[in-house]
User: Fold these one by one.
Assistant:
Number 1:
Amino acid sequence: MAVKIVNLPEIKSLISLKSFNTFKIGGFAQFLTEPSNITELSKVIAWSRKQNIPCHTIGAGSNLLISDNELKGLTICMRKMQGSKIDSKTGIVEALSGESIPHLTRELAKKGLHGLEWAIGIPGTIGGASVMNAGAQGGCIADHLISVKVVSIEKGDLFEIKKNELNYSYRKSILQKEKLIVVSASFHLDPGHDKNKLKKLINDNLFHRLSTQPYQIPSCGSVFQNPLHHKAGKIIEDLGLKGLKKGGAEISSKHANFIVNTENARAQDILDLIKTIQEKVQEKHGFLMHTEVKRLGFEEIS
Ligand SMILES: Cc1cc2nc3c(=O)[nH]c(=O)nc-3n(C[C@H](O)[C@H](O)[C@H](O)COP(=O)(O)OP(=O)(O)OC[C@H]3O[C@@H](n4cnc5c(N)ncnc54)[C@H](O)[C@@H]3O)c2cc1C
């Protein structure tokens, strides 16, 4: 793999994106960088503006399907921007964008802070979760979020956005549309809880996930959003689609809303399975199932 340092030491070229997403799929990034602080981030954004090339932001790549083609422009992976400030008395927490959700969840429990136990099995970053309004078991990121700090890709300025300006709803926020990079998120959690009880709850949640989802096989988690009052997985399972294969991809036999990469799948294999599911659901139920997974390097579609 050709790796060339260009201009700034931390910008590399022609890097395979396969190890930057949990599907383990994708072509090469024209340029890729992993800033570990805001200064580095500002520098690389300024560099991309000077080059007049687009910027793509990724966290842990756990909700992403990346095209097999070369991804033009600068890919900024935020997973190295880690750390958090936790005030166990007030429950106020500020976590940097690249902080891993499971890691933060465990740290909060150790300090008796209640509110994010549902998040233990979500293998993303705090930045990605704030953008996606990640959630499970009736909880979601917006529940305890106070605000996010962002850097604008177009102007390079750093500013704060309060929760009520982010238009959160089920797996949606305005951050999915804006040219902003989340650098940190602040939360207000509930202090003073029994640490052992929180730990047990977390372990039980994780156990439940491991037993119901194909956790060890590359995937992006749930491919489709749940339609109102329905479970996407149940709809797909009832259509008899579990186990359906295309190339190296398969609709999981363990959980029908997961498409798994069992054997060097290409992005097109995943897209073909998505299309098949959407067509069958449309045929049987008369509505379009919308995807939860975000696409990178493709034309935007539903
Ligand atoms: C096994 C498995 C289980 C999962 N279970 C759940 C679940 O229960 N609930 C759930 O909601 N999700 C679940 N997911 C999906 C995923 O983990 C979440 O959506 C997570 O919040 C994505 O975070 P990420 O850092 O991986 O974001 P990425 O996948 O890297 O990015 C997602 C989107 O956010 C943008 N983005 C990422 N970081 C930033 C940033 N710092 N600034 C601006 N934009 C950014 C990207 O451009 C992209 O559009 C699961 C995934 C897997 C693989």
Number 2:
Amino acid sequence: MTLANVFITGAGGMLATALEAVLKPVSHVTALTEAQLDITDKQAVLRAVQGIKPGVIINAAAYTAVDRCETDSEKAMLVNGTAVGYLAQAAQVTGARIIHISTDYLFDGRKDGPYTETDEPNPLSVYGRSKLLGEQELARFTDKYVILRTQWMYGENGKNFVDTILQLAQQKDELKVVDDQYGSPTYTEDLSAVIRWFVEHSEVDGQTFHFSDEGVVSWFGFAREILKLSRIKTKLIPVDTSEFPRPAHRPHNSALDKTKIKQVTNIDIRTWFDALYEYMKKTGKIR
Ligand SMILES: NC(=O)c1ccc[n+]([C@@H]2O[C@H](COP(=O)([O-])OP(=O)(O)OC[C@H]3O[C@@H](n4cnc5c(N)ncnc54)[C@H](OP(=O)(O)O)[C@@H]3O)[C@@H](O)[C@H]2O)c1
């Protein structure tokens, strides 16, 4: 079966790379990098969408440097917020659906338990606020959208926690890792498989869904498994967030409740541990 004509923004990014690999065998994919299409250029966005005539737009473009967003808030709000509205308006004009990727950083992390789609966002950072604006702009201009909120993503072709920990562990005898922020690591391949499902199912439009791999862990617990799998002996020291002050505040608990997406898609979600093993095996990080 060939799926809709799909247009991916933010090509070359971590998620977009995995998405292209998953979708290209089953659909006609146009993927444009920032250099080819800057989504903050409203006219260029409209021209591109009118030219490509996609059935589905997947917005994988974003300003993802969470700490830098604090001092570069105008750009963050423009790329992650206002520009999502440009894509939505172009989608509305051409009749395309739009699948947009959002984040757990919309939440303040004070909830005891995983966040559902109906929990009230209360972002702690500029990045979180800009992504919330993106969701609002999307829904303001079109009904034919799906918002997928995800978290703690890693995969090929992107700066991510797994690669950073491995790199640091090779350079240092001991590493301090935050042990009081909890969430669920998410492999880009798993999110891409779910996005493929949404490309095929327009009947769920107008809704928001949460997705991550299964299981909740702290950054410290995640790092411990990464080192265990790679057999690197570097000592890991659990620390509190207060020991690592960063420009952007992060939620302490941002686990996402996946009840809705499981019911709607019927997709089996694997554990973060199984996904991590596959990523490390595939990328030669496990010998
Ligand atoms: N990574 C995570 O842990 C995580 C967690 C939750 C949600 N998300 C969301 O998932 C989505 C994909 O994230 P990712 O991790 O794949 O990010 P990424 O690797 O940083 O990819 C984002 C891509 O967007 C491009 N981009 C930036 N500004 C643009 C613009 N104005 N016009 C067009 N393209 C632009 C970037 O290009 P340059 O690099 O050349 O600027 C980059 O290629 C984002 O919406 C992000 O908010 C990510």
